[in-house]
Amino acid sequence: MSTAMLSTELDRTTRPLRRTGILARILRNPMGTASLIVLTLIVLAAILAPLITVNPPGRADIGMVNAPPFTDGYLLGGDNAGRDVLSRLVFGAQLTLLGALSTVIVSLLLGVTLGLIGGYYRGRFDAVAGWVCDLLLILPSKIVLVAMFAVIGPNTMLTMAVLGVMVAPSFYRLVRNLVIAVRKELYIDAAQVSGLSDARIIGRHVLFAVRAPIVVHTSMIAGLAIILQAGLEFLGLGDPDSPTWGGMLQDAFTSIYSDPLLMVWPGIAIGVTVGAFILLGNVVRDSFDAPAAVRPRRRAVAAGSDAVTAPEGSICHVSGLTIGYAQASGDDKVVVDGVGFDVQRGRVLGLVGESGSGKTQTSLAILGLLPKGGAVLGGGISFEGKDLLAPGAARALRGRRIAYIPQEPMSNLDPNFTIGHQLIEPLRAAKGLSRTEAREAASALLERVGIPDVERVLRSYPHQISGGMAQRVLIAGAVSCDPDLIIADEPTTALDVTVQAEILDLLRGLQRERGMSMVLVTHDFGVVADLCDDVVVMRDGRVIERGTAEEIFGDPQQEYTRTLLASTLDGTPARSVLDKKGAQS
Amino acid sequence: MTESLLDVSDVKVAFPVAGWRRPPVEILHGVSLSVAPGRTVGLVGESGSGKSTLGRAVLGLAPVTAGTIRFQGREIQDLSKAERRPLAADLQVVFQDPYSSLNPAMSIGAILAEPLRARGIAADEAIARIHDLLDAVGMPSGSARRSPREFSGGQRQRIAIARAIALEPRLIVCDEPTSALDLSTQARVLDLLVELQERTGVSYLFISHNLAVVRRMCHDVAVMYRGEIVEYGEGDRVTSDPQHPYTRSLLMAAPVPDPARQSARRGERQRLRAETAA
Amino acid sequence: MLVFIARRLGGGLVLMLGISFIAFALVFAGGSHAAHSILGQDADAAAIAAKEAELGLDQPFIVQYGTWLLNALRGDFGHSWFNSEQVVDLIGTRLPVTLSIVTVSVLLTALVSVLLGMTAAIRGGWLDRAIQFVSVAGVALPNFWVAIVLVVIFAVTLGWLPATGYVPFGDSPSRWVASITLPVVALLFAGIASTAQQIRGATIDVLSRDFVRTLRARGLSERSVIGAHVLRAAAGPALTVLSLQFIGTIGGAVVIEKVFALPGLGLLGVNATIKGDMPVIMGVLIVTAVIVVLVNLVIDIVNGWINPKARLA
After folding, report:
1. Which of residues 190-219 of A touch B (CB under 8 A)?
2. Are A151 and C30 a contacting pair at CB < 8 A?
3. pLDDT tens digits for C31-80?
4. Which fold has domain C103-276?
5. Would the CA dihedral through C134, C137, C139, C142 be positive or negative?
6. Which residues 445-464 of A have a C-beta within 8 angstroms of C?
7. CB-CB neighbors (< 8 A) of C224 in chain A
8. Which fold has domain B1-90+171-182+199-234?
9. Are A457 and A422 within 8 A, CB to CB?
């Protein structure tokens, strides 16, 4: 099972939560609330500038040149021309915010609308638009804006609008990629079949799904616009008539030796405003990326119940195993509760259950590979008498005495390395073989698992071989170190049924040949019947029933086991026969 | 003889390939079948067989390059998106993935209302209908206010079925509706589908990779392999005594939940493979 | 692999052509008042017309572009409208200055960001939280403001490093280092802030991939897993981030050059744009674009070498 599916397994057992909008999520986060307040204050200050300042921003008073703060009603002092710094700061906010607004509006209008069309309809529009985007993104915006000054002149709004055009491609790319991903979702197809027009689908479903990343990106663009505008003003390419933060920095720079303090105020203004935008973006992004907080179930951790010492003939002894995941609230969410069983030497144990049964978690615990946040809260696992839960114990045995066969073949191979490398490298690490010896061993293994044209496959990359072949490669890798125990997590679930039969044959053959023990995690009782000697049935993190395959299939004791076996559709009458009988009666 | 509801005749489907002047890839190489009113026809095959593609072609979600698809006597393979919309009242779908087929950002009520509102049905009438729909699929009526995230896979599939029957269609394309569900849930959802068919007389085009499921659900079965139908006949016969070697290998490969019988089947399969190899 | 490189090169050339056309259109869109700014406001109509004919501004736009392009391909970017210096010469003396601070800054950014970002992703803890904080501060404060602060502290107050001026490497390597230290540090601040954060994100993504778990299950040491496999997988996204960072740094260098009075391309462009000296502006634009396209090309090719799947695109 992939790690992504594991978290879905976890989600399944959560209790319902209220759905929350963007604003609510922002306000839930203290940083989000803080940035919203800061931004609101800045906007209000800009709008109410004439009302809240005492001195006009443009009035120069010789007596106040480079005056220190708190002199004569000038709260932050006077600049190099004797003007009120605070007043200029507040009025400067107007042009800054208007400029950012100009950029944001142009880039949103262009980037989002075109991105929606390009992502939804693809085709030549998307190809051409993509090429134009590459073009615009390559040019450094600041240099282009500097060049445009010669054409536009000191017109802040127009310059920032041009910036909007230059950053629109980033919105296009973002929206287009998101739309392509959403397009693949089945609910889009369902909406189409339900008779909705394209416009309704885009407006209702697609736009709604991409709103959060758009908000995040917008706040980043707003911050970027403010910094760029300040830079242009600092270079002397801004509006000479109105007070601007960048312009104030330019003035401060000229009097850097006489009054270095002048530089601080506009710097803080810019830093705080842009910082607020960025934090806001981060908060929105984090609140949509991270899974919503889960309310935990209160469960007492069961004390270890089974025998401490492993019985005779058992290669792996699990007793009272309890696994939990740390929640944001501090409690643990228990996914495996007091599970115990034995893996007999040379036999195959089937770990059967539905989703949420904890079978995969148990198998990963034996390997010491629980995903982040998971921990063994109680109980024990021993392998040939050694305690696997001791630090470093599992790691020492992995790839040497205990091996792993995963479920999804393609995602479990590193796409950047050849098959040969991925077989040879661990082989050398585990057995200390030379490169040539390891290569020979790898070739022999690939032949044994039934791969034709071994040389080609060794040189290939994972994306160049089929899923069935990839699974054979993974099996070869698992048995390459001659392990005593193999943990196989649904090794055939992702494969076609004819391929599955061959892989099961292969696993059986290898297991018998080498006398390996196996833990086979599966939800399919047919696979259990085909391969397993012993069976453990799990449900909701607990063991329901244990026994040999003959016992479980022939005489299941527990109600749940009987229900599961009855659900397998084995022996149910065919529909065509049923209906004919119904028609006759 | 009743006229068939759906008539697929020698249909080919090819998908365009990205890149300059690359020839399209043909997925279906001329398939034919028909579905009568109130009956279920199964499409069974492995990955790459084209079974889902055929279902999608019927729904207008895949490009048909040759052949005809007749629904209620009318040719629908070349209809534009706008022309297809009225078909929504009679032709619906239930998809495989219950996590992706319901928009997680909408409430159940809004999801179920969507096809009704698209048809122009007034809001208050829609609300009443939604309650009936939820009832019909065995879901509590309070579900309408909640989000898909709050439900399990089996429950979401029931909601997807409720959405499909909202407009009382004549034919529903079921694309692997139970493949992503747990065993126990699967049985219940299949029962629901059968019950709905018996009550309303709706037809199903039932797509699956699982022979046992197809045997349980379908009156007639078409076996697909690499874009062609290799065997087509009565459900019972095709799934217990197939003629075509591919169908036989499919049947032999599916493991049965009984160690003794499985052992015997395995032996048979290996003998069959040795024979064909020789 | 060779086919991949050839295709990318071809794409780069087409891109350059497109950029040159757009740049020309942008710059010469309002070119008619150039004659005014050269001759002054009082010049009479005849003198204006003569000047325009001399500069070739009376020709149709396509002809102007064509002429410019043909000359440019021969290495002739024309001459400044305000003094008679060749644009190529002007750029030639300024280019090394800008390239010095930009390349050193980007290389250091890359090194530090990868170290910080990957460590934060793998170890988590206080380093992780520190990086998140620094990344906001680094991006929020304008780099030229940081530069001025650095000047005040290290040049004016402490006197350790020069406040202005550039010393070419050929003249004195040690003084070259001294002259570019503060500018590079100013650029580094913003650069590391954004890049480290993104590399951290990319590394976290890679660490959660299935094949990482499978490699651990095969018994590979954590050092091999991280050092070979995670690094390779994160390299792709990291390279993308770095190529964007390069583009951003070139833009950022413009203001830095003003703070430190460095005779670079950026300042050349600013002065030219205030006067309306079109050939110089065009030259600066094109040279910048060429550099960026080349750097992107190299990064693309490296990415194709590291990530075999990328070669299919």
Report:
1. 190-198, 200, 205, 208-209
2. yes
3. 556 666 667 766 677 777 777 777 777 777 788 888 888 888 888 888 88
4. MetI-like fold (1.10.3720)
5. negative
6. 461, 463
7. 425, 429
8. Rossmann fold (3.40.50)
9. no
